[in-house]
Amino acid sequence: MKILKVLVVNCGSSSVKYTLLEMVSEKKVAWGIVECIGLSEAYYKRQSVNTDEKKDYMKIANHREAIELVIKNLFDEKVGSIVDNSEIAVVGHRVAHGGVKFSKSVLVTEKVKEDLKEYFAIAPLHNPANYAGVLAIEKVLPGVPSVLVFDTAFHQTMPDYAYMYAIPYEYYEKDHVRRYGFHGTSHNYVSQRAATILNESLNKLKLITVHLGNGSSVAAIEKGKVVDTSMGFTPLQGVIMGTRCGDIDPAIIPYILSFYPQQYKNSSDALNTLMNKKSGLLGISGLSADMRIIIKAIKSGNKRAKLAFEMLCYSVKKYISAYYGVLNGIDGLIFTAGIGENSPFVREKICANLHALGIEVDSEKNNLESSEERLISSSNSKVKVIVIPTNEELMIARESKICLDGV
Q1: What is the separation of C-alpha 154 from the centre of its chain, rounded to a whole number of angstroms?
Q2: How far apart are CA 361 and CA 379, in angstroms?
Q3: Which residues have a catalytic role annotated?
Q4: Span 200-392 CATH architecture
Q5: What is the percent of the chain where pLDDT is above 70?
Q6: Can you give the residue ranges of every domain in the chain?
Q7: What is the mean pLDDT of residues 38-67?
Q8: DSSP string covering 97-150, please?
Q9: What is the pTM of this model?
Q10: Residue 116 pLDDT > 50
Q11: What does the pLDDT average to over 320-341?
């Protein structure tokens, strides 16, 4: 008897990341990434439970070629993990933006694909790549169903007073300009894991989940539903990030335009690049978007690196404090993603002087090197502070299977 598997595909603007999972044990079977698509330095790195990591540099023109390469490797007689198409129950695709039409995961149909195109303009770096991945899978795995799992879907429970912007209402009615939120799959996963760790029903908990990576967001979750989140119409809003500015006064943009009219004349792309790729930790430090490099520079006495670090931690602290008030108290504060899971220095700084909110971190527990789920709050802390490694691939696989089973 064949044990069915789920293939999770995450197509970025210039990459294809994939994970093949066996769904009885929910364990990874094979995983890898095709990076720098369309560039001379493109490479394919892959690994499986039966093979060591292998990395090859090669010419890869587009996402279709990348996915063809991945599927060919998965079916390889010597090192592959699949014998034939029938072993793959469904392919789950991570999609950045679902707009107002997609409030939950959906099985791919021609109508769904057409609707997805409407959000290319909102998420120009990600949604077209996500769409290309769907088309490529349809070509190389004919007959295997696909499911779209949206980063924005988990946040669709926000009330209107939380997701609306105070601009003329017609922009919401006609153009759907509102806050959507992102990293929903991650926030959903860690909130469920927190309930298990706390041995409490999710619908009885108030949680703040902090996803800290190159892109970062904070969510306020009550009874398993999001009531607010830091990212907005795009992933640019919210806390300071690796290369994104986060919250700024909108009037800064026309002010910059007035001083540099030629540099930004008729170019929304240049402004987007400024705010999305040249700001944040990188823009302030002038050094790097990588928190590890920032912390190393701080220890060497770099003042701008220290400023960037303190600004980022302060921006996260403000959101935690605000959401504590929105929820009228919390049961748990969860840190996840690359920085949230691996930087005790960041966690300590964010949680410092939050005693009034009942948040206290145990230094020894916080500094313990581990890749496991763990409590890092002190015995005196009224709020449980938890580090939970995110697992978006597993969440996408679960969502895809649920969606398929419901058809």
Answers
A1: 12
A2: 9
A3: 151
A4: 2-Layer Sandwich (3.30)
A5: 99
A6: 5-150, 200-392
A7: 90
A8: --TTT-SS-EE--HHHHHHHHTTTTTSTTTHHHHHHHHHHHHHHSTT--EEEEE
A9: 0.91
A10: yes
A11: 97
